[in-house]
Each structure stands twice: as structure tokens, then as C-alpha cells.
Design brief:
By secondary structure, the chain is of the alpha/beta class. The chain contains 30 helices and 29 strands. Helix content is about 35%, strand content about 15%. Helix 15 packs across helix 17 and helix 29 crosses helix 30. It comes from Cryoendolithus antarcticus.
Length: about 800
């Protein structure tokens, strides 16, 4: 008698968020459903009226007070209630801000996670007092807390299941992007945002432009996820994804060559690439990893005295719900940019010295015989058990030619190791990998950020050369500004420590006829014929529209403008429906926060608490004459990446102090953009206006920028910018730095459009911009986020 056929199961493709997509059942055997792709599950018989990216779908789920039928898209401002919010050593400064705005109880204690990870080697009375204050505050509030030495906050968020696939998590740290490695939309926030979330469970976000990065091919043996992101940072090094949300995609064959640990490393360093998030799909590789974590938690999980049990988050029942309907991007979703990279053409890469924008094939640096002083296997980027195993394998392989004895690291080299967390270190010990590195002469450090952020033991001294598996290598990041720092994979770091120079373990073999890495912009080479034709038509339509707009400025975005007119944004009582003023033109890119409000005034409380005094030095380091040229009511317009640099809020409040209600730029530094809304300064990005102004007022110097730009004067007290990379040097105009243009700029808030009048007799043109919804209007009307929180705590009055 034959075996009975297993019963077919019917499931419906569904969106984990709100969706009105029409779907039909998929008939399949249970074994087939176990390996079915999220793309198939999310496929509907009728395309959605407004296709969304994965980023937009997740934001849709965590947005509050959306209008009926509203489908969020890139450019929209939304009120967010994130699934989780993590703070680390800066928890106490957040707590003081939280208490200063009148809050006493955290709104949702399940939403908050606190970790101590940055300065864990510092045993000074001052630091220990701060750590004690944070721990006591967490205990009093009843939130999950992880003490110093337990692990790096981002690793804890992932391994403890706080960063959950298909959810949105934020943290007061720039490497929150790492959560994207497990399909969780992670993005950084500033301290005021964190305090707002603690007090109300909410903050705001503007959905950034979204870039799609399609990975093709398979990784060769000896090439890692670290090589992928180092190559991306170095090969696409012209700010292609600056302030974008990134979505990585590829075929199942390609994605199978990127295990979760590699994805975490890639997502982590999308921060260095300039992005605000780096999101991987919820696919079968992730599914297997999650199942293993849930099994481990159920068998080996141990109770924590300061945090809730891991099994509350990692359990198979929760995973069953997750994989019943995993989120995936819709077919036809609109991306601001598309890049592609053929993994099969990659070789091991090394970043630096002192810049992630410089990436060189390992073979080229090996030929240069670059001697080393220090090597580091530390940080949340690459110090998990798999990374430690890869580094240990270098020494174990070398032991085979050394009578079975683990060889010592090269004379004159210090090799430092710190696991991403205690569980990762314990796993490495159980595998014998940690001991192998210690036996080779590696120096153990407690689990924490340490040398990666220039704190504690093992910093680079003047004239030294170091190589690290961490994420940042800008000058001075890991010690002296007179040192050189390189970044590489764990195995290259280990091999370099063993040989005393930049070197690889010899696991990679270059293909015959290799001519370089295949990569580029646009996605045609990665699409099927049908999808390529669809994209070709869409791109052609966009090109025609752009050409028509260029020939007739007034017609640009006519359709969007009509649509905006038909669906007006509600305006709160007392909020201006329009903001109008003369354009004050500051023709430069990369105007940093020090140029806007000099560092020497930042911590002079008497000065910075006086708007009248602040107004006298606004933009002083950019143009000393600015204060005498600017008038109340002007609209300040500048180039690209305005407000890059540190996180000082005074850069926004100084502009307001001058009587300028609004800044327009080609693009903003992300932290400045957040600080602007948080302090009631309005801003909008209009790249086309920058092009028109530069054509009308051509005063940029044709000569290259100075070879040694003026250093940014960042005060030591500004620890909030501790992990912020230095901005690019500002471009230097050849003539007047600040120009009264006679042009008029109007932001029609209700219609979500801007109107530019190019002088009394010049052209007038319009362009649609992102909506400023009532929730964000309310923040501005209350004088900023702190004022809004106070209102909410008072019952919304």
C-alpha cells in the first residue's frame, strides 16, 4: 500500500500592515510553504494602487494619526511610535532632558531598552556615578537594562530579539542601521527624540529617499560581507546614498551567500556609506537564523536580573506569526536611486587609510608591505562568534606548519580583541576560538565599544598604523590624528597581526581575466525581460517629464501640483498657511554646524541662552559679514548637505535667533534636519532651486578647495558628536559669501508646493514638496519637540 499524499494547505498572501490588496489562496504542501519566498507570499493578483517599498510598508505600520486611506511614501513627515528605542551611555543625558520637560514616568516601559557599552573601561568616579544613575533610573522605571560588560547595545538589540523583522526600532546612536541585517528598519535619533519617546511613546520622522541596491552573483571563497560594504563605500564614494534609506535585494542564490552575520556587518556600515538605514529582506536565510535563535533561547536561555526573558521575544509561536505573512516590497515600488553590485567579481578589500571612501583590493596593499603596530577585532560590526572563528582559523591553519602550536602574533604588534557581547564570547570560548587568539598573544578587552570610538586601552599613538574589523577609520577616531587606520575583515585583521603587515590569509584566489568589480547605477542588468521593459517605459516617461520641465520651468511637477491642490493639507489654527520671504543665498555645500554656530559659544550658557547674542554670531564661521546682511523674515538658502557635522542644537536655534523662520537647501545633514524640527525651524529641500541660483549667481570658485581645510573647532564637552564623522570641507565661493538675491520664495504648506519668483521681472515656477502634516505643524507651533511633549503631558492643552 502506498503512502498517503500529504494534504494541501491554502494560505492567503497578506501584508503584515494595513492593506486592501486583493489576494487569492496559494495551494502548497507544508514542506513547500516552509521554504516559500516572501516575494511569492506577498504577490497579489492585482497590483496595489500605490506600490510601496519595504521601508514605506514598515513606516506605515508604525505611523500614528494617518488620514483615512493615506499611503505613506518617501518625503512624508509622519508621527512614529517605534517598536523599540535603545539608549546607551547617553541614557543619563536623555533622562535629564526627560525630567526637565516635566516627565516623571516612561510612557511605555516595554518600548525602552537601556545598555551601557561605550566607556566600559573607564573606572573613574565620575563615569561610575553616571553608570549607577542610569542603572537606578532604569530599575525605578522598570525598563530592560543591560550593565557594562554585557555587550554592545546594537548587538544586544539583535541577539535578544528587540530588533525584530518587519518592525521599526530607533536608538540614540548612528549605527542603529545595523538592525536592517535582520529585516528591522533601524534608524538613529537624537537625544530630544529619545526623551520624547520615553515621555509620550512618539516622535516624528521624514521618510528619506529610498535607494535600491541589487546584489547579483555569489561571493567567492575568501570574500566576506565586510568586503561587500567596504567595496560599496569605496566604489560608490560620491554621496550616492547620502541620507537615503537603503534596501538590499537579490535572487535567493545570491542572498544565500550572505549569512545573517554578514548582513549585520553590511547594514552596520551603511552608516559610513552615508545612509540612514540599510534594510535586508525577510527571507529564508533570516528565517533559519531566527528559528535557531528561538531554539537556543528555549533550551539555553538564562534569566536576567535586569531585563525580561529572551523567550518573550524569541519563540517559535511568534515566528509562526511572522512568517505567515512576511513584509516585502511591492512590485513597481518607486525608488529614488538604483545601484547594483556583482558579488562574484569582488575580491577582499581594505578601507583607508583614514577614510571609508578609499577602498583598495587587498592584493595591492599586500604588495606595498605596509607595516603594522596595532590590530583590532572589536566593535558591533565584526566581533561575533563567526568573526572570532574566522580570525582564529588564521592562527589554527598556521599551527599546522608550526608543529601544531598556535603561532604568536608578529613582534611589535599589539592585537586587541573584544566580543560584541558576552554570549558571543562564550560561544567563541566553547568553540576554542577565543583561546586560540589569546594563546597567539591577543589582549582581551571587555565587551564594549572601546578602541572603536577612541576610548580605553589600545588607542593608536602618533605615527602608528592600525588595522581593524570595526566600522570607522576617519582621522583621530581610534586615537591620534597622526596615526593611520585601515578597516578590513576579521580574517585579514588576524593575518595582518600574524605577519606584522597588511596581509590576507590566502583563502582567496583571483579569477583568471579579472578586470575589476562589476557595479553601476540603474537596475536593468539585474531585471527580467518583463521587468526591464516596465522599468524602461517608466524611466522614459520620467525623462520626458524632466525635459519638459527644464524647457518650461513653470510646468515642472504640474501633475503633482494639481494633485496637491485637489488634496489640501489641513492647517492647524494659528499655523501659517504660507511662509514667504526674500532668498538670502549662501552658495556653498557642506556648511557644517560649526560654521552656522561656532563651537566656542556652544557651552557658554550665558551667551547661548540669549537670542540677541546668538543672532550676532549666526553663520560667523561661514561669513563674518552674514549678521549685517541678513534681515528678519529672510529665507536662508544654501547648497547640499547643509548642517553636517556635530549634533549641536544651537545651529538651528541660532538661525531662528536671527529672525529667519526657514532654511532651504539642496539637502540637509540628517541630525541638523532633526534638530530643526525639534526646535521649530522649518526646512525644505529643493535641489532645483540650488541649480537655478547657481546659474543666476555663478560665484563658485573654479579652483580646487584648499589642500588643508580649516579644522572644525569641536569643544571637548560636545560628547554627543562622539561618533559623528567629520564632514567634507565646505566649498569656497569666489566672490560674495552671502547674497541678497531679490528673489522671493514661498512655501504653500496647504498645497505642499513651493513657488519661486526669480526677481521682479523673472520667471515664476512651482514645485511639489513633501507634505508638512498637522502633527509636525503642531511640534513647530509649540516651539519645538520639548514644548510639544509638555503639552502632551498636560493632557494636550
Amino acid at each position: 500500500m502506498g503512502r498517503c499524499a500529504p494534504a494541501l494547505t491554502s494560505i492567503k498572501s497578506a501584508n503584515m500592515g494595513k492593506s486592501d490588496h486583493h489576494t487569492e489562496p496559494i495551494n502548497a504542501f507544508h514542506s513547500q510553504l516552509e521554504s516559500i519566498s516572501p516575494e511569492l507570499l506577498s504577490r497579489s493578483t492585482t497590483a496595489p494602487a500605490t506600490p510601496q517599498t519595504l521601508t514605506e510598508k514598515i513606516v506605515q505600520r508604525y505611523s500614528l494619526d494617518l488620514a483615512e486611506g493615506k499611503v505613506v511614501k518617501s518625503g512624508d513627515y509622519v508621527t512614529l511610535s517605534p517598536h523599540k528605542c535603545m539608549t546607551h551611555d547617553n541614557s543619563w543625558p536623555v533622562a535629564t532632558k526627560f525630567m526637565s520637560i516635566g516627565a516623571s514616568k516612561i510612557h511605555d516601559r516595554d518600548q525602552i531598552v537601556m545598555t551601557l557599552d561605550h566607556d566600559v573601561q573607564n573606572k573613574s568616579e565620575k563615569n561610575l556615578k553616571k553608570y549607577s544613575q542610569i542603572e537606578n533610573f532604569a530599575k525605578d522605571q522598570g525598563v530592560d537594562f543591560y550593565p557594562a560588560g554585557r555587550g554592545i547595545g546594537h548587538q544586544i538589540m539583535v541577539e535578544e530579539g528587540y530588533a525584530w523583522p518587519g518592525t521599526l526600532a530607533v536608538a540614540s546612536d548612528s549605527h542603529t542601521n545595523m538592525y536592517g541585517g535582520v529585516g528591522c528598519l533601524g534608524t538613529p535619533v537624537v537625544r530630544t527624540d529619545a526623551a520624547s519617546i520615553w515621555a509620550t511613546g512618539r516622535t516624528w520622522w521624514q521618510i528619506p529617499p529610498i535607494a535600491k541596491v541589487t546584489l547579483t552573483g555569489v561571493l567567492p571563497i575568501g570574500v566576506t560581507g565586510k568586503d561587500v560594504i567596504v567595496a560599496l563605500c569605496g566604489l560608490f564614494n560620491n554621496d550616492e546614498v547620502l541620507n537615503h534609506a537603503i534596501e538590499f535585494t537579490g535572487t535567493e542564490e545570491t542572498m544565500r551567500t550572505l549569512p545573517v552575520d554578514d548582513r549585520l556587518a553590511i547594514a552596520n556600515m551603511t552608516t559610513e556609506w552615508g545612509a540612514l538605514s540599510g534594510l535586508f529582506p525577510i527571507d529564508n536565510i533570516l528565517k533559519g537564523w531566527l528559528r535557531a535563535k528561538a531554539t537556543d533561547a528555549s533550551i539555553f536561555g538564562t534569566a536576567s536580573q535586569t531585563a525580561s526573558p529572551t523567550t518573550l521575544r524569541f519563540n517559535h509561536e511568534r515566528l509562526d506569526d511572522l512568517f505567515e505573512a512576511p513584509l516585502a516590497a511591492d512590485k513597481g515600488a518607486k525608488y529614488a536611486k538604483e545601484l547594483f553590485l556583482d558579488l562574484s567579481t569582488l575580491t577582499p578589500y581594505v578601507s583607508g587609510p583614514n577614510s571609508v571612501k578609499v577602498a583598495t583590493p587587498l592584493s595591492e596593499l599586500e604588495a606595498q608591505d605596509i607595516k603594522l603596530n596595532k590590530a583590532y577585532l572589536v566593535s558591533c560590526t565584526n566581533s561575533r562568534r563567526s568573526d572570532i572563528a574566522a580570525a582564529a582559523k588564521v592562527f589554527k591553519d598556521a599551527a599546522k606548519a608550526n608543529d601544531g602550536k598556535i603561532p604568536k602574533i608578529a613582534p611589535g604588534v599589539n592585537f586587541y580583541i573584544a566580543a560584541a557581547s558576552l554570549p558571543e564570547q562564550q560561544a567563541a570560548i566553547e568553540q576554542g576560538d577565543w583561546q586560540a587568539l589569546v594563546e597567539a598573544g591577543a589582549q582581551e578587552l571587555p565587551s564594549g565599544c572601546g578602541p572603536c570610538i577612541g576610548l580605553g586601552t589600545g588607542l593608536l599613538e602618533p605615527g602608528e598604523v592600525g588595522i581593524s574589523a570595526s566600522n570607522r577609520n576617519f582621522k583621530g577616531r581610534m586615537g591620534s590624528t597622526d596615526a593611520k587606520a585601515y578597516l578590513a575583515s576579521p580574517e585579514v585583521v588576524a593575518a595582518s597581526a600574524l605577519q606584522g603587515k597588511i596581509a590576507g590569509p590566502g583563502w582567496f584566489t583571483k579569477q583568471e581575466g579579472w578586470e575589476g568589480v562589476t557595479r553601476g547605477e540603474g537596475g536593468y542588468t539585474t531585471l527580467s525581460m518583463e521587468d526591464a521593459l516596465e522599468k524602461l517605459i517608466a524611466d522614459a516617461d520620467a525623462a520626458i517629464s524632466a525635459a519638459e520641465a527644464k524647457l518650461s520651468p513653470a510646468s515642472e511637477d504640474a501633475a503633482d501640483s494639481t494633485s496637491a491642490t485637489n488634496s489640501l493639507t489641513p492647517i492647524l489654527p494659528g499655523f501659517p498657511a504660507k511662509v514667504t520671504g526674500e532668498i538670502l543665498w549662501c552658495n556653498a555645500d557642506n556648511i557644517n554646524t560649526d560654521a552656522i554656530y561656532p563651537g566656542k559659544y556652544t557651552y557658554d550658557d550665558a551667551f547661548s541662552s540669549s537670542p540677541e547674542k546668538m543672532a550676532t554670531v549666526t553663520m560667523e564661521n561661514y561669513d563674518p559679514a552674514f549678521s549685517g546682511i541678513a534681515k528678519k523674515g529672510d529665507i536662508l538658502v544654501s547648497g547640499f548637505n547643509f548642517g553636517c557635522g556635530s549634533s549641536r542644537e544651537q545651529a538651528a536655534t541660532a538661525v531662528l535667533a536671527k529672525g529667519i523662520p526657514m532654511v532651504v537647501a539642496g539637502s540637509f545633514g540628517n541630525i541638523f534636519s532633526r534638530n530643526s524640527i525639534n526646535n521649530a525651524l522649518m526646512g525644505v529641500e529643493v535641489p532645483r532651486l540650488i541649480e537655478r541660483l547657481r546659474a543666476a549667481f555663478p560665484n563658485l570658485s573654479s579652483s580646487p578647495p584648499p589642500s588643508k581645510p580649516q579644522a572644525i573647532t569641536e569643544p571637548e564637552q560636545n560628547s554627543q558628536s562622539l561618533d559623528s564623522p567629520p564632514p567634507a570641507p565646505p566649498s569656497v565661493p569666489a566672490s560674495d559669501l552671502t547674497i541678497r538675491t531679490g528673489w522671493t520664495f514661498t512655501w504653500d504648506v496647504a498645497r505642499s508646493e513651493v513657488i519661486v519668483k526669480e526677481g521682479a521681472d523673472g520667471e515664476e515656477w512651482k514645485q511639489s514638496v513633501g507634505e508638512l502634516p498637522p502633527n509636525v505643524q503642531d511640534i513647530i507651533a509649540q516651539g519645538g519637540l520639548e514644548g510639544w511633549v509638555r503639552k502632551e503631558l498636560a493632557g494636550g492643552k
